[in-house]
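Justification of resources, computational component.

The compute hours requested in this renewal are based largely on the per-chain cost of generating structure records like the one below. Each record pairs the submitted sequence with a full structure-token output. That output is archived, and it is also reused by downstream analysis tasks.
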Amino acid sequence: MIPQIKYIELKSGYSDNGPAWIGKVEFSKTGKTIYFNGQAFKGNGHGYARDIQTGELYWISGIKKNGQDRHWAGSGKIYIDKDIVDEYLKIIDSSALDPQIYELVEIVQTDKQFFSNLENI
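The structure output for this chain reads:
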């Protein structure tokens, strides 16, 4: 599957204000494992998914064209991969990110082979 820009939010231990990211995710061949920022999740990229290592629950969804990715009752900055900002701005039809909402970060590559080995033990 082609890498896609997604909204990822930690739900375990939080309501609608958990740490959140916008970045490109990669998928396994079956599409049931999602790789992002050094982590792997079981899900389909359109709703709840569990971190393979910790069991924590995340929300992973497509980004909204209006830029309102957080739940209406949520709060907190959204960390956005500095490498996809231009692509994201085109999608939301904007010229700049609001620094009150977004913080630029570096997203690390995920070792997919590590997680493949972990799942197939």
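The first strand starts at residue 4 and ends at 10. The chain has a mean pLDDT of 93.
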